[in-house]
Amino acid sequence: MKFVCMSSEIKPGEAKRVEVDGRAPLAVFNLDGKFFVTDDTCTHGDASLCDGEIDGDVVECPYHQGAFEIATGKPAGAPCTIPLRTYATQVTEGQVFARLDGEDGNADRQA
Length: 111
Ligand code: FES
Prior knowledge:
single chain, mainly beta, Rieske Iron-sulfur Protein, four-stranded antiparallel beta sheet, 0% helix
């Protein structure tokens, strides 16, 4: 898994945009101490979901108020119909890790 950020960087109910290895930005969400990593860019347009509103377990896009379930990436409000990508997430000793594309599990957990 890939190191994404420190859990202390994100307060409960907030999100942070993180760029890792030059790939498209990720959004790291803290929902009451549980962490989730998704793509940051809305699947409907070029909006950063980290700039949106978090309402319970849903994030609302700042552009057209579409919404996604943060844990699953499922569209939760029009006009979003394409699921948001989500990544397996793990927190170890205050560090947030995510399994990004092309990784074979824990190859670089020591990063
Ligand atoms: S860009 Fe996100 S709902 Fe349109």
